[in-house]
Amino acid sequence: MKKFFVQLVIIFVLFNNVFFNILPLPSFFSYWDELLELSIIAVSIIVLLKNKTPIKKNYFFMYLVIAVMISIGLLGNFIFEYVSGYSHIIKDVVGFCKFPLAFIFLKNLDYDEKISEYITDGFMKVIRLIVIAIFFFGIISIFKDIGMSQNEIRNGIRPYMFMFSHPTYLVLSSLFMLVLIDSYSFKKDKNQIVYELMLILIILLTMRTKGVVIAALYLFIRYFGKAFKKYKVLYYIGGAGIALTAALDKILLYVSYSSSPREALYKGSLTLLKTCFPFGSGFASFASHISAVSNSLVYDFIHIPYYWVESGNELSVLGDAGLAYYIGQFGIVGSVLFVMLIINIYKISIQKVDNKLPINIFWLYVLVALTTESILINSGIELVLMLLLICGLNKKSGEICEESSDHQREVLA
Questions:
Q1: 315: alpha, beta or left, given left = phi > 0 and alpha = psi -120 to 50?
Q2: What pLDDT was estimated at residue 316?
Protein backbone atom coordinates (compact mmCIF):
# COMPACT_ATOMS: atom_id res chain seq x y z
CA MET A 1 0.00 0.00 0.00
CA LYS A 2 2.84 2.37 0.89
CA LYS A 3 4.52 1.65 -2.45
CA PHE A 4 1.35 2.49 -4.37
CA PHE A 5 0.88 5.72 -2.39
CA VAL A 6 4.46 6.88 -3.07
CA GLN A 7 4.06 6.09 -6.77
CA LEU A 8 0.83 8.11 -6.88
CA VAL A 9 2.62 11.04 -5.25
CA ILE A 10 5.34 10.88 -7.92
CA ILE A 11 2.71 10.83 -10.68
CA PHE A 12 1.08 13.85 -9.07
CA VAL A 13 4.45 15.63 -8.90
CA LEU A 14 4.94 14.99 -12.62
CA PHE A 15 1.44 16.01 -13.74
CA ASN A 16 -0.19 18.15 -11.04
CA ASN A 17 -0.53 21.05 -13.49
CA VAL A 18 -2.52 18.77 -15.84
CA PHE A 19 -4.88 17.80 -13.02
CA PHE A 20 -5.45 21.43 -12.02
CA ASN A 21 -5.85 22.42 -15.68
CA ILE A 22 -8.48 19.87 -16.70
CA LEU A 23 -10.31 19.04 -13.44
CA PRO A 24 -12.72 21.43 -11.68
CA LEU A 25 -10.84 21.34 -8.38
CA PRO A 26 -11.59 23.86 -5.60
CA SER A 27 -9.17 26.80 -5.47
CA PHE A 28 -7.79 25.80 -2.06
CA PHE A 29 -6.30 22.67 -3.66
CA SER A 30 -3.66 24.96 -5.17
CA TYR A 31 -2.11 25.25 -1.69
CA TRP A 32 -1.20 21.55 -1.67
CA ASP A 33 2.53 22.27 -1.88
CA GLU A 34 2.56 24.71 1.04
CA LEU A 35 0.57 22.24 3.16
CA LEU A 36 2.93 19.42 2.18
CA GLU A 37 5.96 21.60 2.93
CA LEU A 38 4.70 22.44 6.44
CA SER A 39 3.85 18.77 7.02
CA ILE A 40 7.35 17.69 5.91
CA ILE A 41 8.99 20.21 8.24
CA ALA A 42 6.77 19.32 11.21
CA VAL A 43 7.13 15.54 10.79
CA SER A 44 10.89 15.83 10.16
CA ILE A 45 11.43 17.81 13.37
CA ILE A 46 9.42 15.25 15.33
CA VAL A 47 11.38 12.34 13.83
CA LEU A 48 14.72 14.07 14.38
CA LEU A 49 13.91 14.70 18.04
CA LYS A 50 12.28 11.33 18.67
CA ASN A 51 15.06 9.27 17.09
CA LYS A 52 17.77 11.67 18.29
CA THR A 53 19.07 11.73 14.74
CA PRO A 54 22.42 13.57 14.69
CA ILE A 55 22.79 16.59 12.42
CA LYS A 56 25.83 16.59 10.16
CA LYS A 57 27.99 19.71 10.15
CA ASN A 58 27.21 20.65 6.54
CA TYR A 59 23.48 20.28 7.21
CA PHE A 60 23.72 22.45 10.32
CA PHE A 61 25.52 25.09 8.23
CA MET A 62 22.63 25.16 5.74
CA TYR A 63 20.02 25.39 8.51
CA LEU A 64 22.00 28.35 9.82
CA VAL A 65 22.19 30.03 6.39
CA ILE A 66 18.41 29.69 5.93
CA ALA A 67 17.79 31.15 9.41
CA VAL A 68 20.10 34.10 8.69
CA MET A 69 18.43 34.75 5.31
CA ILE A 70 14.99 34.73 6.95
CA SER A 71 16.30 37.19 9.54
CA ILE A 72 17.70 39.45 6.81
CA GLY A 73 14.37 39.40 4.97
CA LEU A 74 12.44 40.25 8.14
CA LEU A 75 14.92 43.03 8.94
CA GLY A 76 14.20 44.49 5.50
CA ASN A 77 10.48 44.40 6.29
CA PHE A 78 11.03 46.05 9.68
CA ILE A 79 13.41 48.80 8.46
CA PHE A 80 11.80 49.83 5.16
CA GLU A 81 8.13 48.88 5.74
CA TYR A 82 7.32 48.37 2.05
CA VAL A 83 4.79 45.70 3.06
CA SER A 84 2.24 46.23 5.82
CA GLY A 85 0.41 42.89 5.95
CA TYR A 86 2.00 40.24 8.18
CA SER A 87 0.07 37.46 6.44
CA HIS A 88 1.76 38.23 3.12
CA ILE A 89 5.19 38.23 4.77
CA ILE A 90 4.51 34.85 6.40
CA LYS A 91 3.31 33.39 3.10
CA ASP A 92 6.50 34.55 1.38
CA VAL A 93 8.67 33.09 4.16
CA VAL A 94 6.89 29.76 3.61
CA GLY A 95 7.45 30.07 -0.15
CA PHE A 96 11.13 30.90 0.31
CA CYS A 97 11.68 27.85 2.57
CA LYS A 98 9.80 25.50 0.26
CA PHE A 99 12.80 24.12 -1.64
CA PRO A 100 15.87 24.42 0.60
CA LEU A 101 14.39 23.56 3.99
CA ALA A 102 12.20 20.67 2.83
CA PHE A 103 15.10 19.13 0.89
CA ILE A 104 17.59 19.44 3.75
CA PHE A 105 15.20 17.94 6.30
CA LEU A 106 14.32 14.95 4.09
CA LYS A 107 17.91 14.37 2.95
CA ASN A 108 19.13 14.51 6.53
CA LEU A 109 16.67 11.69 7.30
CA ASP A 110 17.86 9.68 4.25
CA TYR A 111 14.49 9.85 2.50
CA ASP A 112 16.25 9.86 -0.87
CA GLU A 113 17.03 6.16 -0.59
CA LYS A 114 13.67 5.38 1.07
CA ILE A 115 11.66 6.97 -1.75
CA SER A 116 13.76 5.36 -4.50
CA GLU A 117 12.99 1.88 -3.13
CA TYR A 118 9.42 2.25 -4.38
CA ILE A 119 10.40 2.75 -8.02
CA THR A 120 9.70 -0.56 -9.78
CA ASP A 121 9.86 -1.91 -13.32
CA GLY A 122 6.05 -1.75 -13.48
CA PHE A 123 6.01 1.91 -12.48
CA MET A 124 8.66 2.77 -15.07
CA LYS A 125 6.60 0.99 -17.75
CA VAL A 126 3.74 3.36 -16.94
CA ILE A 127 6.11 6.34 -17.24
CA ARG A 128 7.38 5.10 -20.62
CA LEU A 129 3.80 4.65 -21.89
CA ILE A 130 3.01 8.22 -20.85
CA VAL A 131 6.11 9.43 -22.71
CA ILE A 132 4.96 7.62 -25.85
CA ALA A 133 1.47 9.17 -25.59
CA ILE A 134 2.79 12.72 -25.09
CA PHE A 135 5.25 12.25 -27.96
CA PHE A 136 2.53 10.89 -30.26
CA PHE A 137 0.23 13.87 -29.69
CA GLY A 138 3.21 16.20 -30.05
CA ILE A 139 3.98 14.90 -33.54
CA ILE A 140 0.32 15.27 -34.53
CA SER A 141 0.26 18.83 -33.20
CA ILE A 142 3.03 19.82 -35.63
CA PHE A 143 0.72 19.23 -38.59
CA LYS A 144 -2.73 19.83 -37.07
CA ASP A 145 -4.04 21.97 -34.24
CA ILE A 146 -5.63 19.46 -31.82
CA GLY A 147 -6.02 21.91 -28.93
CA MET A 148 -2.72 21.00 -27.29
CA SER A 149 -0.66 23.96 -28.48
CA GLN A 150 -0.45 27.67 -27.77
CA ASN A 151 -2.17 30.10 -30.10
CA GLU A 152 1.07 31.58 -31.39
CA ILE A 153 3.70 30.64 -33.93
CA ARG A 154 7.37 30.16 -33.03
CA ASN A 155 9.84 29.03 -35.66
CA GLY A 156 6.99 27.94 -37.90
CA ILE A 157 5.05 25.80 -35.42
CA ARG A 158 2.74 26.29 -32.45
CA PRO A 159 4.47 25.66 -29.08
CA TYR A 160 3.33 22.27 -27.79
CA MET A 161 1.98 22.01 -24.24
CA PHE A 162 0.01 18.71 -24.27
CA MET A 163 -2.65 19.05 -21.50
CA PHE A 164 -0.64 21.45 -19.37
CA SER A 165 -1.69 25.08 -18.94
CA HIS A 166 1.60 26.36 -20.43
CA PRO A 167 4.56 24.85 -22.32
CA THR A 168 6.89 25.65 -19.40
CA TYR A 169 5.10 23.06 -17.26
CA LEU A 170 5.54 20.45 -19.99
CA VAL A 171 9.26 21.26 -20.13
CA LEU A 172 9.61 20.72 -16.36
CA SER A 173 7.59 17.48 -16.42
CA SER A 174 9.61 16.18 -19.39
CA LEU A 175 12.85 17.04 -17.62
CA PHE A 176 11.68 15.14 -14.54
CA MET A 177 10.85 12.06 -16.65
CA LEU A 178 14.16 12.37 -18.51
CA VAL A 179 16.30 12.35 -15.36
CA LEU A 180 14.10 9.64 -13.83
CA ILE A 181 14.45 7.34 -16.85
CA ASP A 182 18.18 8.05 -17.08
CA SER A 183 18.65 7.27 -13.37
CA TYR A 184 16.61 4.07 -13.44
CA SER A 185 18.17 2.79 -16.67
CA PHE A 186 21.65 3.36 -15.19
CA LYS A 187 20.65 1.47 -12.04
CA LYS A 188 19.27 -1.45 -14.08
CA ASP A 189 21.99 -1.20 -16.75
CA LYS A 190 19.41 -0.78 -19.51
CA ASN A 191 19.57 1.42 -22.58
CA GLN A 192 16.61 3.79 -22.79
CA ILE A 193 17.87 6.00 -25.62
CA VAL A 194 14.55 5.82 -27.51
CA TYR A 195 12.60 7.31 -24.60
CA GLU A 196 15.31 9.85 -23.87
CA LEU A 197 15.21 11.09 -27.47
CA MET A 198 11.39 11.19 -27.37
CA LEU A 199 11.57 13.44 -24.31
CA ILE A 200 14.22 15.63 -25.93
CA LEU A 201 11.93 16.10 -28.95
CA ILE A 202 8.96 16.85 -26.69
CA ILE A 203 11.03 19.53 -24.94
CA LEU A 204 12.06 21.02 -28.28
CA LEU A 205 8.43 21.10 -29.45
CA THR A 206 7.55 23.40 -26.55
CA MET A 207 9.68 26.10 -28.21
CA ARG A 208 10.94 27.30 -24.81
CA THR A 209 14.48 28.67 -24.85
CA LYS A 210 15.39 27.12 -21.50
CA GLY A 211 14.11 23.79 -22.81
CA VAL A 212 16.22 24.05 -25.96
CA VAL A 213 19.29 24.93 -23.85
CA ILE A 214 18.84 22.00 -21.48
CA ALA A 215 18.11 19.56 -24.34
CA ALA A 216 21.29 20.62 -26.13
CA LEU A 217 23.36 20.33 -22.95
CA TYR A 218 21.90 16.91 -22.15
CA LEU A 219 22.78 15.54 -25.60
CA PHE A 220 26.28 17.05 -25.39
CA ILE A 221 27.04 15.69 -21.92
CA ARG A 222 25.27 12.34 -22.41
CA TYR A 223 26.73 11.36 -25.77
CA PHE A 224 29.83 13.50 -26.28
CA GLY A 225 30.89 14.33 -22.72
CA LYS A 226 33.29 11.42 -22.29
CA ALA A 227 35.23 12.36 -25.42
CA PHE A 228 35.80 15.89 -24.06
CA LYS A 229 36.11 15.04 -20.36
CA LYS A 230 39.86 14.48 -20.65
CA TYR A 231 40.22 18.09 -21.76
CA LYS A 232 38.27 19.99 -19.12
CA VAL A 233 38.79 23.40 -20.71
CA LEU A 234 37.32 22.20 -24.02
CA TYR A 235 34.55 20.39 -22.13
CA TYR A 236 33.35 23.51 -20.33
CA ILE A 237 33.89 25.77 -23.34
CA GLY A 238 31.90 23.32 -25.48
CA GLY A 239 29.04 23.19 -22.99
CA ALA A 240 28.95 26.98 -22.61
CA GLY A 241 29.12 27.43 -26.38
CA ILE A 242 26.21 25.06 -26.95
CA ALA A 243 24.10 26.80 -24.29
CA LEU A 244 24.91 30.23 -25.74
CA THR A 245 24.11 29.12 -29.29
CA ALA A 246 20.80 27.59 -28.20
CA ALA A 247 19.78 30.76 -26.36
CA LEU A 248 21.28 33.31 -28.80
CA ASP A 249 18.00 34.31 -30.48
CA LYS A 250 16.35 34.93 -27.12
CA ILE A 251 19.34 36.89 -25.82
CA LEU A 252 19.34 39.13 -28.90
CA LEU A 253 15.59 39.62 -28.48
CA TYR A 254 16.01 40.75 -24.87
CA VAL A 255 18.87 43.06 -25.83
CA SER A 256 16.58 44.70 -28.41
CA TYR A 257 13.98 45.46 -25.73
CA SER A 258 14.14 48.86 -24.07
CA SER A 259 11.68 48.19 -21.25
CA SER A 260 10.59 44.57 -20.96
CA PRO A 261 9.13 43.42 -17.60
CA ARG A 262 12.01 41.02 -16.99
CA GLU A 263 14.61 43.71 -17.72
CA ALA A 264 12.76 46.10 -15.40
CA LEU A 265 12.72 43.48 -12.63
CA TYR A 266 16.49 42.99 -12.82
CA LYS A 267 17.15 46.72 -12.97
CA GLY A 268 14.76 47.16 -10.05
CA SER A 269 16.59 44.51 -8.02
CA LEU A 270 19.86 46.44 -8.48
CA THR A 271 18.10 49.63 -7.41
CA LEU A 272 16.95 47.89 -4.22
CA LEU A 273 20.45 46.50 -3.75
CA LYS A 274 21.72 50.09 -3.46
CA THR A 275 18.70 51.62 -1.73
CA CYS A 276 18.45 48.99 1.02
CA PHE A 277 22.16 48.19 1.39
CA PRO A 278 23.35 45.92 2.94
CA PHE A 279 19.95 44.27 3.39
CA GLY A 280 17.08 44.03 0.93
CA SER A 281 13.49 45.24 0.71
CA GLY A 282 12.16 42.28 2.72
CA PHE A 283 9.68 39.48 2.15
CA ALA A 284 6.64 39.91 -0.13
CA SER A 285 7.99 43.21 -1.45
CA PHE A 286 9.44 42.51 -4.90
CA ALA A 287 9.59 40.20 -7.94
CA SER A 288 6.88 37.78 -6.85
CA HIS A 289 3.15 37.40 -7.35
CA ILE A 290 2.62 37.86 -3.63
CA SER A 291 4.30 41.27 -3.81
CA ALA A 292 1.42 42.40 -6.03
CA VAL A 293 -1.20 41.02 -3.64
CA SER A 294 0.52 42.80 -0.75
CA ASN A 295 0.48 46.10 -2.68
CA SER A 296 4.19 46.54 -2.05
CA LEU A 297 5.28 50.19 -1.93
CA VAL A 298 8.39 49.21 -3.92
CA TYR A 299 6.34 49.55 -7.09
CA ASP A 300 5.74 53.21 -6.30
CA PHE A 301 9.29 53.98 -7.41
CA ILE A 302 10.20 50.90 -9.49
CA HIS A 303 8.00 50.74 -12.57
CA ILE A 304 7.34 47.31 -14.08
CA PRO A 305 5.79 47.46 -17.60
CA TYR A 306 2.50 45.60 -18.03
CA TYR A 307 2.23 45.15 -14.26
CA TRP A 308 -1.50 45.92 -14.34
CA VAL A 309 -4.08 45.54 -17.07
CA GLU A 310 -6.99 47.92 -17.42
CA SER A 311 -9.31 45.70 -15.35
CA GLY A 312 -6.86 45.92 -12.46
CA ASN A 313 -5.80 42.27 -12.61
CA GLU A 314 -2.15 41.45 -12.20
CA LEU A 315 -0.38 40.05 -15.26
CA SER A 316 2.02 37.16 -14.79
CA VAL A 317 5.14 39.25 -15.11
CA LEU A 318 6.30 39.70 -11.53
CA GLY A 319 7.49 36.10 -11.28
CA ASP A 320 9.50 36.28 -14.51
CA ALA A 321 12.89 36.84 -12.89
CA GLY A 322 13.76 34.37 -10.15
CA LEU A 323 17.18 35.81 -9.34
CA ALA A 324 15.73 39.33 -9.04
CA TYR A 325 13.57 38.03 -6.16
CA TYR A 326 16.65 37.13 -4.11
CA ILE A 327 18.77 40.15 -5.11
CA GLY A 328 16.02 42.69 -4.38
CA GLN A 329 14.54 41.19 -1.22
CA PHE A 330 17.72 39.99 0.51
CA GLY A 331 20.32 42.47 -0.70
CA ILE A 332 24.03 41.85 -1.14
CA VAL A 333 24.45 39.84 2.08
CA GLY A 334 21.43 37.64 1.41
CA SER A 335 22.41 37.12 -2.24
CA VAL A 336 25.86 35.83 -1.21
CA LEU A 337 24.24 33.53 1.35
CA PHE A 338 21.80 32.26 -1.29
CA VAL A 339 24.68 31.32 -3.60
CA MET A 340 26.40 29.53 -0.72
CA LEU A 341 23.18 27.69 0.09
CA ILE A 342 22.65 26.47 -3.47
CA ILE A 343 26.29 25.35 -3.79
CA ASN A 344 26.05 23.34 -0.56
CA ILE A 345 22.75 21.72 -1.51
CA TYR A 346 24.29 20.77 -4.86
CA LYS A 347 27.34 19.25 -3.14
CA ILE A 348 25.12 17.17 -0.88
CA SER A 349 23.00 16.00 -3.82
CA ILE A 350 26.01 14.56 -5.69
CA GLN A 351 27.63 12.90 -2.66
CA LYS A 352 28.07 9.14 -2.95
CA VAL A 353 26.41 8.76 -6.34
CA ASP A 354 27.61 6.70 -9.29
CA ASN A 355 25.78 8.56 -12.04
CA LYS A 356 25.97 12.36 -11.70
CA LEU A 357 24.50 13.18 -15.13
CA PRO A 358 20.79 13.31 -14.14
CA ILE A 359 21.57 15.39 -11.06
CA ASN A 360 23.79 17.78 -13.01
CA ILE A 361 21.14 18.18 -15.73
CA PHE A 362 18.54 18.81 -13.03
CA TRP A 363 20.67 21.59 -11.53
CA LEU A 364 21.55 23.09 -14.89
CA TYR A 365 17.85 23.44 -15.63
CA VAL A 366 17.19 25.03 -12.23
CA LEU A 367 19.97 27.59 -12.82
CA VAL A 368 18.74 28.40 -16.33
CA ALA A 369 15.11 28.62 -15.15
CA LEU A 370 16.03 30.94 -12.27
CA THR A 371 16.89 33.65 -14.78
CA THR A 372 13.35 33.61 -16.18
CA GLU A 373 11.03 32.34 -13.43
CA SER A 374 10.66 31.86 -9.67
CA ILE A 375 11.07 28.10 -10.01
CA LEU A 376 12.25 27.42 -6.44
CA ILE A 377 9.09 29.06 -5.10
CA ASN A 378 6.51 28.02 -7.69
CA SER A 379 7.73 24.41 -8.07
CA GLY A 380 9.78 23.98 -4.90
CA ILE A 381 8.18 20.82 -3.53
CA GLU A 382 8.15 19.13 -6.96
CA LEU A 383 11.88 19.87 -7.27
CA VAL A 384 12.57 18.53 -3.77
CA LEU A 385 10.82 15.20 -4.32
CA MET A 386 12.34 14.64 -7.76
CA LEU A 387 15.85 15.56 -6.62
CA LEU A 388 15.55 13.18 -3.67
CA LEU A 389 14.32 10.45 -6.00
CA ILE A 390 17.18 10.70 -8.48
CA CYS A 391 19.72 11.04 -5.65
CA GLY A 392 18.46 7.76 -4.20
CA LEU A 393 18.39 5.96 -7.55
CA ASN A 394 21.97 6.98 -8.34
CA LYS A 395 23.44 6.21 -4.95
CA LYS A 396 26.60 4.09 -5.05
CA SER A 397 26.31 0.39 -4.28
CA GLY A 398 27.00 -0.29 -0.63
CA GLU A 399 26.50 3.30 0.45
CA ILE A 400 22.95 2.80 1.69
CA CYS A 401 23.95 0.34 4.37
CA GLU A 402 26.75 2.65 5.50
CA GLU A 403 24.55 5.70 6.09
CA SER A 404 23.97 5.01 9.76
CA SER A 405 27.70 4.83 10.47
CA ASP A 406 28.26 7.98 8.38
CA HIS A 407 25.80 9.81 10.62
CA GLN A 408 27.89 8.86 13.63
CA ARG A 409 31.16 9.99 12.02
CA GLU A 410 29.89 13.37 10.79
CA VAL A 411 27.79 14.59 13.67
CA LEU A 412 27.72 18.08 15.02
CA ALA A 413 30.12 18.22 17.93
A1: beta
A2: 60
